[in-house]
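Sanity check record (used in CI):
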Amino acid sequence: MRTKPYHPVVLSILRQHGARVVLDMPCGSGWLGQAMVAGKLQLDALDGLGLWEFPAAGLPYRHVREHDLDTPLAGAAGYDAIVCAEAIHLLRNPGLMLDGAFRALRPGGRLILTTPNTWRVGSRLAYLTRGFHYGFSPMVGKRRGDYVTYVPWSFPQLHLFLAHQGFGEIVLHEVDEPKPKYLVEHLAGLPARAYCRSHERAASSADERDYWRQAGGRQALYGRWLVMSARRPAQG
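Expected output for Methyltransferase type 11:
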């Protein structure tokens, strides 16, 4: 299994919250199943949803079925956790996917999302000079089924979508990667850090203070990935 920097973060979140029944959507080639085989993750059941790619035979998936995440999710419920890795930026209807995930989680269950971080200073500098974020080059001539990126996500934007879907305990997790990678990124990020810190000091509630603390943190401003988790309330 080719390990990516966000893989150990996702596995750590699943272990931390004691997830036993997990939905992997999209499951791709099945890296969560490979983590189980390698002894890095212990689950009672792992299900997968895929559209273009599916796990190899022999991986410990209970059920794998075809599903387009741009369409309503039906027939899935009671999961302790749902992992949606490197997919939400490829969707035309991300709100529909979040609604389906919310309904498929048991009360108190958690959604884990990973996606490129276009709010990081390096990507913002690229947008300033060429009009496109890193990884979001012009898609002219590409069709569905090709690698087409639709939505450039940032921490504030993804936090907004999750909160308005009804999720709570929204956390941006640290990824072990160079942050920042270049000195110019550090310097260019200082005004944003100062802005977020001023709002953190002026916050009128713990939730607001936590939001600005995360928004002004190194992962949000300099990290290449967003790894975020959010909890469906225990009631409702």
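The CA atoms of residues 136 and 149 lie 6 Å apart. If this sentence no longer matches the regenerated tokens, the check is flagged for review.
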